[in-house]
Amino acid sequence: MGQYLAKRVLLALVVLFVISIVVFTAVRMIPGDVCKIVLNTPDVDEAQCQAIREDLGLDKPLVTQYLVYMGGVLTGDWGTTIISKRDVWTEIRTRIPLTLELTILSTFFALIVAIPIGVVSAVRQDSALDYVLRVLSIGWLSIPGFWLGTMLIVFPAKWWGYAPPVGYVDIWEDPLKNLEQLYLPAISLGLALSASLARVTRSSMLEVFRQDYIRTARAKGLRERMVVFRHALKNAMIPVVTLFGLQFGVLLGGTVVLENIYSLPGLGLLTFTSVTIKDYPQVQGLVLFFAAVLVTINLLVDLSYAWFDPRIRYA
Amino acid sequence: MEKRDNYWLRRKLSRRTALRGTALAGAGAATMALVGCGGGDDDDGGGSGPGLLPTAAATPTPAKQPKPGGSLTFQISSPPPSLDPYTQTSFVAAYNHGLSYSKLFRFKAGTPDVAPADNSMEPDLAQAMPEQPDTLTFIVKLKPNAKFHNVAPVNGRAVTSKDIAYAYNRYKTYEKSVHKTGLAFIDKVETPDDQTVRITTKQPYADLVFYLGGNLGAWICPQEWAESQDVATKMIGSGPFLHTEFKTGVSLSYKKNPDYFDKPYPYFDDVTALIVTDQAKRVADFSSKQVNLTWLFLPTERDQLKAARPDAKFEETQGIGGYIYLRTDKPPFNDKRVRQAISMALNRKAIRDAISKGEGVPEQLYHVGYPWARQVKDLPQAKYWEYNLAEAKKLLAAAIGEGKTIDTTWEHADAAIYTQAYVDTATLAMAQLKQLGINITPIVKPYAQYISTTYQGQYEGMGHSPRAVAYWLDFVTERFTMKPQRGRINLSYVNDPKLEDLMDKQRGQFVWEERLQTVRQIEEHVAEEQYEIYFSTDTRTYFWDANIENYRPTAWFPYTHLMKAWRDA
């Protein structure tokens, strides 16, 4: 296990190294002059631009720029944002809690919807209920989060004059207000995930139901509830967890749109704003951070297999 | 002229006398509505109709006793890129600058008794309007009680003439300043004493008061703060409100400046600007009465809000007016017949119908909005704004040959900043021009890329942008001159000696009637040449709570005038 873990961590570091090069290079290949973005006006001259490039270190060779940047990242200095001169890592760090909370709420919503639907659908395979749940989940899968998010803003306001409270407050300051601000985007973000998880749960449960040990469990007289939840569900979770790991990137991507719609100052909104104003250091930092999160999540997913299925052993 | 108490009219009447006391008066000189500046995120006023449209009049209001206290929340549509006034022309930054910084002069508009698009100025840090001993010299006396905010590093010290000189010099010389060309008319700023500023211009410049009172680059930010690293994220000036907090991506908060020099303002104790980028959320927040003031809604959202908040006050404004720019320095657009044909092949009404329920100002010209400006229909060149495909085809055939077509590109930004209406306008116009025989390949760029490439003039063929507008007459110079240090956004590569002469001439004409004659010549010239081809404008609407008194939107965004409002409940 220890050897496997070390190997995976090393591999993850290689992946992150490659990603850092790709991101660093790609950001600099985007057409347009950064100095005009910094100044936000066409009213610039070459001397101004030169001063800005020097200020940002863009006058140095690309390799030097990369080494300086990565040296900074490894020592906790992710650089400063181009326009507002804020510390990149501070910007990211202060927004992690909100995005984390939003993704946890979305995941929670997705799981409490998906698992029961998947299980019931599998247990009642080919019944009317199964068909209804399958149609529902396909429907949810086809609803884009941004559309649902907008509808959840528009119609309550139109019908009841209701909108979530304005001006984000964090969960420690006012938990109820915070939850009221987040529950609609969490539903918007989680619904499509719940649909795909429900479908995988169903098919995985059906697969497990056909296993010998389930037949054995039933043969020895265990109650059906025990068979389903203790023996089948846990083992059926491996594909579900795998899918969740894969979908986590989609979830993070979804925050870019939904945090923008709901004016939530998380990593998603920061990404949107940074890309819009072409804030190179911030975009680089964010992509690197997201990459690290995804690599970590997928590593954890791989490691969780052993917990879900004791037959799995890591060499 | 109907606006006899306009500043420049009064200058004509008493040319050598000091301009003291009262501000630029008048319900007059309604001008182009500034919806933004820099980056082209702007639009104009003009046309006819209610609200901020040029015909909107001052509204006499019954005297009510102001009630100090309370709070006000309003929305802004995107986060300010930076709050440093020296490096920004962002209109979003400008609204916030207006709360915490001061200028020598400020717009009178913002209360019901002044027409919203009246560009008249009143003294801000200045005691009165400037004295002008000659055509190059402007002398401004500062209010003796003007103080900066009572926070470090300025700690409530007095605003002196040296602060004014420092600010203007920084705007002109700071390497990252974006206002160098804008203030290029200033030769020197002298400070004979702490209360006196003497500004000498390089040439007679009739728009000095309007430029220094407008919102482009004249905020007085003290040296101690201007040179601080935090100037990008916090404002410390001498304005009516203290900037207390900037929650990135969420809000900017303000508290009443108890030491504000212009008593009894401000009335509100707290003001919050919420950053809400999503239009649907802006509608929902105002519908649910969580926001007191919101703005810039197209007709569809406007009607939703009217239904949701029948109690709210509202006022319509002329909205975004886009225009096509093209490479007039190269074939085929160097032939004015091609440009005229394009204008005549645009079915502006169809575009208005599709995008803004048919609302908006049908045609616009360069000075539309000013009461003295002729409408397009009154110009000898009015036919170029009329949809006439047959005539357009004839013009095009005469220019490029019978049966020939033009293949070109049209660059524009995506909808992220300029809205979907802007993108839809481009799409519809391209389809219409195909009927003329112009086959266009659209090139859509992310805003940041667009603004740093196409909007810098790096394009071929055609482009499309919201209109750059201003509250000073000389803005035409910025649009059409090729002279260094003057031209700022000459996107159509206009190089026209006749136009240059006219622009130079009007800039130095202090006698209004004389300047008007020159301006009319410019109008007709650019109308004939179609250097920029304008679409109609749409309408945008402001809403605010019924119990907010003494407030009215202005055609120019700075929210300095919020200091005059109060809540009657």
Describe this structure in words.
- The complex is a heterodimer of chains A (315) and B (569).
- Chain A has 315 residues and is mainly alpha-helical.
- Helices cover 77% and strands 0% of the residues of chain A.
- Chain A has 12 helices and no strands.
- The termini of chain A are close together.
- Chain B has 569 residues and is an alpha+beta fold.
- In chain B, the strands form 5 sheets. In chain B, strands 11-16-12-15-13-14 form a 6-stranded mixed beta sheet, with helices on both faces. Chain B has a 4-stranded mixed beta sheet with strand order 1-10-9-8, with helices on one face. A 4-stranded antiparallel beta sheet of chain B has the order 4-5-7-6, covered by helices on one side.
- In chain B, helix 6 (279-287) runs parallel beside helix 7 (299-308), helix 8 (336-345) runs antiparallel to helix 10 and helix 14 runs antiparallel to helix 15 (512-529).
- The two termini of chain B are 42 Å apart.
- At the A-B interface, helix 2, helix 3, helix 7 and helix 11 of A face strand 10, helix 6 and helix 12 of B.
Q: In terms of structural class, how would the helical and strand content of chain B be classed?
A: alpha+beta
Largest sheet of chain B: 6 strands, mixed
Tally of separate helices of chain A: 12
Order of SSEs of chain A = HHHHHHHHHHHH
Q: What summary fits the major beta sheet of chain A? A: none
- The number of E-state strands of chain A comes to 0
- Identify the most extensive interface between protein chains: A-B, 50 and 58 residues
Distance between the termini of chain B: 42 Å
Identify the overall geometry of chain A: globular
Strand tally of chain B, please? 18
- What is the average per-residue confidence, as pLDDT of chain B, rounded to a whole number? 84
Low-pLDDT stretches of chain A are none
Q: What is the structural class of chain A?
A: mainly alpha
